[in-house]
Amino acid sequence: MLSTPLAQDTSVVQLAHDGLTVASQWSVIVAVVALLGILAALAMVLAEMRRDVRSVLAALDSVTEQAGPFLEHATGAVGNLKRVTDVISTEAERLNRTAGEVASEFGKLSVESRRRVADISALLDVAQSEAEDAVLDLAAKVRMLRRGAGLLARATSRGGDEGEDSP
Predict the structure, then answer these.
(1) pLDDT digits (tens, 9 = 90+) for 38-48
(2) What is the spatial distance between Cα 150 and Cα 143, in angstroms, rounded to a whole number?
(3) Chain-centre distance of CA 91, in angstroms?
(4) What is the rounded CA–CA span in Å between residue 33 and residue 74?
(5) Which pLDDT tens digit goes with each residue over 71-98?
(6) At residue 70, what are phi and psi to the nearest 5 degrees?
(7) Can you tell me the distance from the alpha carbon of 98 to that of 87, in angstroms, rounded to the nearest whole number?
(8) How many Å from the N-terminal Cα to the C-terminal Cα in the chain?
């Protein structure tokens, strides 16, 4: 077989590269490399953040486990404090009502005591008036008795004087 060279019917023309085309191609390559570098750095940052998030989650789980009993005790203490507060509030209301009742009773007793003191004062005024009248009557009677005794004594002394003269 005879080999015959095939003739090319298409010709390729290659233009000479100028400096601007080369610079733009190199800038695209540099931009792609920079973008790949940024992507690699971003991947490393994300991996580091993922480790940090995992350690924070582990710490939160640990704190949650350790805080569980504390929160249970705190919840119980809050419940106890609420019950104590309710009891104190109930007792304070009861004491307030009792104090109001006592004040009301003292007011009534005060009015009653004033009335009784006024009655006793009036009774003492009457007793004093009666005693004064009795003392004045007694003094008048004693005066009358002295006069009568004085008259009797004079009459007796005159009658005795006359009787001694007659025998």
Answers:
(1) 999 999 999 99
(2) 10
(3) 15
(4) 58
(5) 888 899 999 999 999 999 999 999 999 9
(6) -60, -45
(7) 16
(8) 233
Q: What are the tokens at 44?
A: 């490393």
From CA 109, how far away is CA 101, in angstroms rounded? Answer: 12
Task: Record the tokens describing residue 55, joined without a space.
Answer: 């350690």
Alpha-carbon distance 38 to 20, whole Å?
A: 26
Both tokens of 122, joined, read 């009036």
Total residue count of the chain as it appears in this document: 167
Alpha helices in the chain (DSSP H): 19-165
Residue position matching structure tokens 């009557």: 137
